[in-house]
């Protein structure tokens, strides 16, 4: 499988991993609010891993896509997922530093994570695979 079909498949997998990572990140943030740092760190680590996998799939999409709109959407998704991956890693470090009583280091990690979370907002919403197919169908219809 190559070209657009491979790109669409990779995007779908990347999107699924991305959504799971977003859920894990939200859950871990809520766990921090509850003061459960060790549990939160596990959630941040899982989120970082899934964000990393989504970045790999979105990168494959960019490489395989024959369609400029698919490439553009996947590139934006890749950049957003990268920011969130970095934030999850900083937040994991924050929880570890907090557990070790290193409040200054924990604050710095949290600040770094907040910067990455803010940067992620610049890339808007990651389009679902269904939205991707709808935009591809619209382009085909407008070309005919």
From TrEMBL:
Polar residues bias (residue ranges): 98-108, 135-144
Top-level taxon in the UniProt lineage: Archaea
Annotated stretches, region: Disordered: 98-144
Name of the protein this chain belongs to: Uncharacterized protein
Biological source species: Haloarcula hispanica (strain ATCC 33960 / DSM 4426 / JCM 8911 / NBRC 102182 / NCIMB 2187 / VKM B-1755)
């Amino acid at each position: 499988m190559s070209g657009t079909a491979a790109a669409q498949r990779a995007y779908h997998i990347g999107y699924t991993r991305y959504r799971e990572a977003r859920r894990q990140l939200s859950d871990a943030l809520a766990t921090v609010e509850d003061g459960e740092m060790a549990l939160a760190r596990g959630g941040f680590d899982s989120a970082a891993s899934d964000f990393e996998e989504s970045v790999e799939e979105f990168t494959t999409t960019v490489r395989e896509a024959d369609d400029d709109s698919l490439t553009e959407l996947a590139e934006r998704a890749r950049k957003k997922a990268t920011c969130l991956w970095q934030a999850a890693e900083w937040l994991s470090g924050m929880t570890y530093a907090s557990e070790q009583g290193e409040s200054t280091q924990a604050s710095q990690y949290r600040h770094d994570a907040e910067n990455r979370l803010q940067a992620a907002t610049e890339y808007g919403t990651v389009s679902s695979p269904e939205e991707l197919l709808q935009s591809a169908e619209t382009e085909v219809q407008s070309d005919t």
